[in-house]
Structure formats: C-alpha cells, structure tokens
Amino acid sequence: MKRIMVAVDFSDISVFAVDVAAHVANSLKTKLRLVHVRTGKQYFPEFAKNNPQFSIEDNDVSYMEFLVNRAKRIYKVESGEVDYKFRQGNVVKEITNQAHYDDSIVIVCGTHGVSGFEDRWIGSNAYRLVSSAPCPVIAIRKEIPFDVRQKILIPIDYERVSRRIVPHVAGFAKAINAQILVVGVGQKKRWVIPGQLSAFVHQVDRFLRRKNFMEYETAMIDGTEGPRQLLDFAKAHDVTMIALPVRKTGNPFTTVFFPFANELLNMSDLPVIAVPEYDSQGLVLYK
Question: Can you give the residue ranges of the UspA domain (predicted)?
C-alpha cells in the first residue's frame, strides 16, 4: 500500500493539513504518515493551551500522538495505517529523504505565504519543499472545506510543461472524484502565434475525452496582468485547488518554477497541488 506524508510543525495550518491529508488518503486508499523535523526549536501549539492532556507531558511526542489520534478520526482506509516519524536536521532535506524512503505519492504541507516566512518552519520551507520533492505536493494556505466535491483548475500556457502534468492531475482528480477546469492563460505579446493557445487547450480537451474523463470544462482568460486574474477567475468558478507544474532539472540552482507559477504559489489562498514535470511513481496516473 502506498503512503501519503504530511509535514507537521504544530502550527494551526499544519494541524489542518493533517485533516486534509487524511481525506486525501481515504480517496487514494493509502497509508498516512505524519513527519516532524526537529530543529532545536521549542513549540507551543494552540491545541495544547489550556488542554489538561498536556499538563504532564508537554513535548513533541505527545503533540504528535494527539495529531495521529485526530487523523484517525477521519481516516477510513481498510487495513490502512496512520503513524508518525521524527527526523532531525535540515527540514527540506529530511522531508524529501523521508518521501523517497517511504515511496510517498503525495506530500501535504501548510504554507504561510510570503508574509509568514519568518514564522515556523512550514512557512519558510514550503516553497523549497515544493521545488525539491520527488512527488506532488499539496500546499495549503488556510482552512477550507476538503470534505466537499473538489474542483481542480489546470492553467495551460505556452510552456509545454503546463500540458505535461495533465495526465497526473487528471489521475489525481479521478481518484478523489474531482471536477477539472482547464484554463488557457493568454498574454498579449508580439511573438504569440494567433490561435496557438487555443490549440493547446484543445489538445488537453482531446486527451480528457479520449480517457473518458466526463466532468471537465475548458475556458480562456487573459493573464497579461499576472496571477491575480487567474485567482479571481478561479474563485468566480468555485475552484477549490489549482495545479501547477514544477520543472525538474539536474542543476539545483536552476529555477524550477516559472515566474507566473512562483507568484501564483505565493499569492494563492486556494490550495495548490504542485506536480513535478516527470513523475514515474506518484498518483493514479493515466497511461
């Protein structure tokens, strides 16, 4: 049985990420593992305040056991397992290594965005984790209902990588019974070939029809002014998650997010699922 990992730093948003991970694990029929990287910091989580359970044992082990029990109240996978693991060292490196070791198919983490970079380690490392993870990462900014029908927006632009993740996102959407909204994001530039973006969206449309993916829509918007237009469009169309591609390269200093995607990740208050351009394991994929 495959496994989903959720990164935990005991902040409120990482507690919510545990709930989301349990729902995703139910849909994908996987095990669930909570992982905390010890960095030498002391934590004083909100859930431990005025809670008699922590009056005697007030430490990260008791916090983790509390969150495992919380996850088990949501987790419904027959013959499944919810457990936890501690690691020590560099947060991104240790989470990535654990994901490799566990053969994780998805990592769920909270993120505080740019304004929260000085906060706990989830906030400061979420972007680097998304960039280096061996599998898709669901990054969550705030509490949103995740036990409702999901609608995933896939932005398609002129870069090939935006289309290469479609099979992976479609497989994930099918597994969690989500709808898909494919949106061509155009820009007013001289070098753009007329009709090229529409052709790319039509290519995705043909793929989804060929794979009998019934519940999807397509649309076109002008993204010249940046990600805010896409976010406004997403909210107006009841989108609950946005898919973004991550380009994997052999050079660790190469930017793996295109500027638009990078800015969108920082701005979005909707959950983002960041999918590596290549993903030989992961998810329930269409072949």
Answer: 1-141
Say whether pLDDT at 276 is over 90: no
Summarised one tens digit per residue, pLDDT across range 165-193 is: 999 999 999 989 999 999 999 877 656 67
Domain boundaries, position 229: 151-276
Last residue of a domain, one of 118, 140, 162: 140
Do both 232 and 259 map to the same domain? yes
Q: Please give the pLDDT value at position 123.
A: 45
Tell me the CATH number at 80: 3.40.50.620
What is the domain count for the chain?
2
Based on the fold, state whether residues 117 and 174 are members of the same structural domain.
no
Distance (Å, whole) CA 201 – CA 178: 19
Residue 245 has pLDDT above 70, yes or no: yes
Q: Is 231 inside any structural domain?
A: yes
Q: Are residues 267 and 232 in the same domain?
A: yes
Confidence class for position 58, pLDDT limits 50, 70, 90: low
The total of other beta-carbon atoms located within 10 Å of residue 264's CB is: 24
pTM: 0.86
Residue 58 burial by Cβ neighbours in a 10 Å radius (0-12, 13-18, 19+): middle
**82 phi/psi in degrees, rounded to 5:** -120, 125
